Amino acid sequence: MDDIDQIRLEDGSKDPGGSILIPISKIDPDGKLNVPEKEGKPMRKKIWQKKWVRLGGIVLVIFLFFISLSGIWAYSYFKKVEVVGASVLNLKLAFEEQDIDKVKQELANTEKSFQNLKNAYKTILWMKSVPWLGEYINDGQHGLNGASYGLEALKIVVEVVEPYSDIIGFVKDSEQAKSGQETAQDRLDFVIKTIPEVVPKADKLIEKVKLVKVEIDEIDPTDYPEELAGKKIRLRIEKVMELISLGSDLLEKSKPLLEASSYLLGVDSERKYLILFQNDKELRPTGGFITAYSIAKVKNAKFEAVESSDIYNLDSHYTPSLTAPEPLIKYLKGPYILSRKYRLRDINWSPDFEESMRLFTQEAEKVGIKNVDGVIGVDTQLLVNILNVIGPIGVPGYGEFSTKIISDCNCPQVIYELESFADIEGPVVWSENEPGKIVFAPPNYDNRKKIIGPLMNSVLANALGQPKDKIPQLAEAILRSLIEKHVLFYLTDEKAQAAVESFEIAGKLKDNYQHDFLFINDANLGGRKSNLYVKEEVLQEVEIGKDGSVVKTLTITYNNPEKYDGWLNSLLPNWVRIYVPKGSELIEFSGVEDRENPYEELGKTVFAGFFELRPQGIVKVIARYRLPFKVSLVYKLYIQKQPGKDAPSYLITLGKKQEEFFLRMDGELKIKI
Q1: For 154, 186, 283, 600, which has the most beta carbons within 10 A of its beta carbon?
Q2: Where are the transmembrane segments (predicted)?
């Protein structure tokens, strides 16, 4: 068969356009048909280019559409944010104006605007699956959920406190508003009657606040920049999370105390308490040297002091029978030269208030103090906090007392007067030749703390007689005194004791804590009232090895900046005990003149030693030790404050991270490694 080169099909027209050319096809010798590639490739490229242009245009249009849509959504959303912000501001102002009815109205407005905000946010929840961006969308949802639970909790709070609105300083036009002549005692009586109604609502409040904490804990502050547009973003998030955590813990701890309040205040039957006055200017393990005591009866929240006296009077009737700790015998001397047995005034040697008071009440029974329902330890700071609210008070036979700072001691006048009354004639002088014999004592030595009873009665009468506009500040002063450990409780009733332990006002060391722990306890062993001036700074340098092992260097700096006066300020013989996790290994211990070998007490390992601090002097005590466990991811430290101390400054360093604060209450610190 001849090869076919080309076939032209004619349609009879002479016009060349009337013919059709068919591409040449050849059959090779093997019988295969070879069809040449079609011509016109450039045309195909042009077609695909047009398709890409069209597709790109469509994508661009879609992108611009979404950008526009996002812009519209963002504008609409942030308008809703502004509305919520305005509502929150109005709610804040209502609280500041202390108008309970306005608070309720603004709370309702805030709930409504916030719900609109949540509904708007739902439209972008599909973006949670988008890498990187999804994390922040998720955080936003947790934040909104937490805020929603927070509003529900606030609604419960308003419902709970409304009957007591005037107690916390709020006003309203309802029938529950009381006259301005109503006293603190009147309002306290009302509170006592309504406590049973409050407890069930407290459960709901605790539940809501827990839910807030669960949501907020899902947010990781390290995902956010430290600063943005000059604002500390990460720090703000951390502070909010910290406040929520503290609030949640405080509410949960307060419920048992609320349930036990009827018992404590003598609603069901009269209570009898032994009140011990501890002088924090002469610091001892549980808060101060026991200077005086009072027996008080409480019925329906009405306190009555039935007996008050100097601790030395009580001690004079006591026959010592228990061997005192070696530091008391060795450094306090005085009566311990004659006998190595405990005096009642020194029995608060254990830093565990319950342990010390159990021993004290056991021995006090031998001198007639029996059948008490508990012991309440108070120091001078409680008195200062109350007088700051109620102002100067008069005490019949003793003059006026106030918190005005006076130059004689650079301290509150009430502190100066209390110390002056006790010691103005000079200190007690013991014979060097005849151990146990006093060769000189001030005129008031036999009852040098006798002012305590009249002073306590005047404070109680003035505090409970305050008009209602002073009640919020008075309640705040008492609460601050409690959480800062200027008031401690030991109760014989197990349920009541568990309640004060839960609220952390029982002066106990924290147990069953599986992380780092620190508690520094000091005892003034004959240094007059030097703790009035001593400042304490604590530095903790934490080193974490690659294997998670922890070595700490603890530096405690004691500074007495004032001059020697032989009365208030003198040489301070100090016994320090450092409580750390059980099993810690001591590497170095310096700055002490005498020391004990490490030992175990109250479930902790203790490093203890003695030093003397002179007026205008500085002492540094350094302890370097290894923790008995390893850590990873997060370093946790629980620090407890010694009762009676003001607010020692603390600095913790871990690598480049630092935490600095004044220790006013017990608390936990967390640092990510």
Answers
A1: 283
A2: 52-75
Question: Among candidates 295, 306, 426, 302, which has minimal Cα distance to 372?
Answer: 295
Contact 651, 658 (CB under 8 A): yes
Overall average pLDDT of the 461-476 stretch: 85
Strands (DSSP E) contained in 502-645 are: 516-524, 535-544, 549-560, 572-581, 585-590, 594-595, 599-601, 604-613, 617-630, 634-640
Instruction: Check pLDDT > 50 for residue 527.
Output: yes
Report H helices in 396-470.
413-423, 452-464
At position 356, the amino acid (one-letter code) is S
End-to-end CA distance of the chain: 89
Domain boundaries, the chain: 7-36, 56-264, 271-502, 516-672
CA distance 274 to 353: 14
Is 180 strand, coil or helix?
coil
For residue 436, the model assigns a pLDDT of: 60
User: How many other β-carbons are positioned within 10 Å of the β-carbon of residue 610?
Assistant: 18
350: number of Cβ within 10 Å: 20
Range 516-672 has CATH code 2.60.40: yes
The answer to whether 168 touches 474, Cβ cutoff 8 Å, is no
- 271-502 carries CATH number 3.40.630: yes
- Dig out the tokens for 503 from the structure: 């609220």
Q: Which tens digits make up the pLDDT trace of 581-635?
A: 999 999 999 999 999 999 999 999 999 999 999 999 999 999 999 999 999 999 9
Task: State the pLDDT at residue 3.
Answer: 47
| Tens digit of each residue's pLDDT (9 = 90 or more) over 148-206 | 999 999 999 888 878 877 666 676 654 444 444 566 777 777 777 777 778 888 889 99
Residue 203 neighbours by CB distance under 10 Å: 11
**Alpha helix (H) residue ranges in 331-451:** 335-338, 353-364, 380-390, 413-423
> Is residue 17 pLDDT above 90, yes or no?
no
Q: Which residue has the tokens 């110390």?
A: 419
